[in-house]
Specification:
By secondary structure, this protein is α+β, with helices and mostly antiparallel strands. It has 9 helices and 4 strands.
Amino acid sequence: MKSTIQEDQDINNAEASKNYWQNAISFDEYMKVAEERFHNNPDQNDEHQEYYELGLQRLNRTIKTYKVDPAQLEELKAKNFTGKILIVSEPWCGDASATVPAVSTFFTEAGIPVKVFLRDSDLSLIDQFQTNGTQSIPKVLIINDDFSIKANWGPRPQYGNELLKKFKENPETYPREVFYNDLQVYYAKNRGKDAIQEIISLL
């Protein structure tokens, strides 16, 4: 049995999750933000400005190449998940550009509500789901009907994590440029399939 304190914490966490959800945007709105920041960014001091063009190219590439996998769709339906998917992201992020469109399209196709929360609009959310002490994105939050958080995924599939580990352990023999190239080649070929599979496994 849960203590009263634990129940209060759960209620507060659910209320916080609901608030983040209400302040999130649709994927279409997210794409509009990406376009605006590239063409006419209202923030003249945006430190990520140089990355928006490439981010937008990758977002559009993922949108064009991603195809919903019927087998994954059936596997998801068998889970009987009735909650929501909240993706913490930013349009300048390379990892996000390769996975967010696929994840959004897949779960939307399955009839599950999906929203995107802009990480930098309120860092208090990503700070609850840091990766090794960093605010890495994307983070996919799996939210139950009562707005409690069931699980989270991110910022990249296991294969991407293995490439990152290889780079960190052997930066001289596996330099940053090669790592980045290998990661993007993987993303382009995989088209979000691994990310979606790993998220389904958490349901």
